[in-house]
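We were asked to recover a plausible sequence for a given structure. The inputs and outputs are reproduced exactly as logged, with field labels preserved.

PROBLEM: sequence recovery
POSITIONS: 279
GIVEN STRUCTURE:
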């Protein structure tokens, strides 16, 4: 069985490739800029979401479609990929969607739902991986939090069922290499839900510094993110995600991820430890 991964040079794609190789697979990496995959130690083919060449999928049985990064363009881009897969004779597409995409109030949900609908209308076998919030979405700013002396956000007491990218990547590798997942939709999330105050407490415990969580109104938090260099639109989006988290959108008590992994999901303490070690 030949497996190909779109977006293979990205953060999630690289992890999926590693997990696939650990499971004895010989995957094909698909990338807009193949030269960025020179270090991947697998075959790398040029593949652009905007103009995907079906010939790049020659011989591919199963395709992992990692959702694109260009918000607002993804519905069109993903439909392009699905069409190319159909033309190339791909048998199954596995797609990385969003946790509870059918009910989520996150602004990200619409494009994911549109892609799920396109897959449902396709003759291909499909598996939907509705990924929850990556721990790295928040631990990635630990360095800034240490400098500022606080974890800032607009999530209040909202809880995040975090899991690190590597857990989601390993689950994808399991689904890609095992039978019995066609036609399934998995809601993937970490075993435990935490607040941003919990994150701040964990950072404090591991660093010996007093790093509190400071809640900000949405507009103030967006302004702070823009002030430290994020594009204004992205800053507003991140602040809005926190507000939705306050409503419980990013909390989940399911065990799909744990069951696919065959082990507990990586705890917040370990993710914080790894983030601090990387500083």
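RECOVERED SEQUENCE:
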């Amino acid at each position: 069985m030949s497996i190909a991964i779109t977006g293979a040079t990205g953060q999630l794609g690289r992890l999926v490739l590693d997990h696939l190789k650990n499971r004895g697979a010989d995957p094909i990496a698909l990338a807009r800029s193949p030269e960025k995959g020179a270090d991947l130690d697998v075959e790398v083919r040029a593949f652009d979401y905007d103009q995907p060449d079906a010939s790049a999928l020659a011989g591919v049985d199963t395709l992992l479609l990692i959702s694109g990064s260009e918000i607002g363009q993804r519905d069109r881009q993903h439909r392009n990929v699905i069409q190319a897969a159909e033309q190339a004779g791909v048998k199954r597409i596995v797609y990385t969607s969003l946790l509870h995409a059918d009910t989520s109030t996150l602004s990200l949900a619409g494009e994911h739902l549109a892609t799920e609908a396109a897959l449902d209308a396709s003759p291909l076998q499909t598996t939907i991986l509705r990924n929850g919030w990556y721990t790295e979405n928040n631990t990635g700013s630990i360095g800034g939090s240490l400098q500022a002396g606080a974890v800032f956000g607009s999530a209040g007491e909202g809880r995040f069922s975090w899991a690190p990218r590597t857990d989601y990547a390993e689950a994808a590798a399991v689904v890609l290499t095992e039978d019995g997942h066609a036609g399934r939709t998995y809601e993937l999330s970490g075993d435990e839900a935490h607040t941003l105050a919990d994150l701040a407490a964990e950072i404090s415990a591991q660093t010996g510094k007093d790093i509190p969580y400071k809640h900000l109104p949405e507009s103030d938090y967006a302004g702070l993110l823009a002030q430290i260099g994020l594009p204004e639109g992205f800053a507003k989006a991140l602040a809005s995600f926190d507000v939705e988290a306050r409503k419980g959108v990013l909390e989940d008590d399911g065990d799909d991820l744990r069951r696919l992994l065959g082990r507990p999901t990586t705890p917040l303490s370990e993710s914080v430890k790894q983030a601090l070690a990387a500083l």
